[in-house]
Amino acid sequence: MRFKLLLGCLLFSVNLGAQGPGAGDPGMVAERPAAEGGATEVNISLYVIDIEKIDDVNQRFSVDIFVRSDWQDPRLALPAEERSGQIRTMSLEAIWNPRILVINDRGLSNRFPRVAEVDDAGNVLVRQRVSGELAVDLQFGEFPFDTQRLPIEIISYQYSPDELSFALNSKIMGDDDSFSAEDWRLRILEPEFDQFVLSGGGGSARPRLTYFIEAERIASYYVLTMFLPMSLIIFMSWMVFWLPPDIVPSRIALSTGAIFSLIAFGFSIRLSLPRVSYMTRADVFVLGCTLLVFLALSVAVIGSRWASREKMPQALRLNAVARWAYVGLFALVAVVSMLG
What we know:
Order of helices and strands: HHEEEEEEEEEEEEEHHHH
CATH architecture of the largest domain: Distorted Sandwich
Shape: rod-shaped
Distance between the termini: 40 Å
Structural class: alpha+beta
Number of strands: 13
CATH class of the largest domain: Mainly Beta
Number of helices: 6
Low-confidence stretches: 1-19
Mean pLDDT: 87
Helix content: 25-40%
Oligomer: single chain
Strand content: 25-35%
């Protein structure tokens, strides 16, 4: 399927003809078509070939996209008597173009030559395939049950909204099920049209077209590799309450072993995420489990101390109460961290 798509893209890039009238004219390159007739409308449509990966730590995502942009420039039209359905190939630098910029570009590269196809009537068509990394502001508050929006933000860096507008029929397509990104469920959303305000340019606005791809994290991996092992550590610590209070070494060893295991798990989770100033759901779970293990250690120390002071009935009663309170508190931590 992907081979057929790439073959189609290559066939689209084959251009016929030669330079036409007006190509390379400095005035025509600098001035937009029909400048006195309102904003020039530009259609930009995308086909997402692949989303290769989403990098949580660096907050980037890698894309491979086929871009189709078109507009109408009457100055490139041939006289009626010379029209024969010919398609001319022109360099983008030799004709007017909308000065497009992807503002969250962090390393996109073009695969095709920077040329345009122009028909007899002056309709300009540019096809390009781009691949590389784009920046994204990921929000990890719900991690690992989070859903992100991956943007492709396109603006015209030279023209204002009064001079250039993006066509409302601009669209994005792609086969959601064929993307390579692991551990994500991806879905293409509708584009959004608004304005990008230049903060350092005296409040100047530029037309903006933003395409979004929704990325829902598949949490099963984290449930199996994080929540389940940590739950087992918690229940290992729970065994403290089933041992007699006067068996001090075994009770202390169980509690301290559980604490060290939780600390190691906490570090491994944080290594897979950027340093953020807020807590994620995973952090809530780790913190809650850590407090429970410290609670088990405290109860073990208090019970052992009571037993050594001939307060065995009180120590046994503390064990019995903590045994079931501990389970209830763990259930509360699990519900809060998983359901929010």
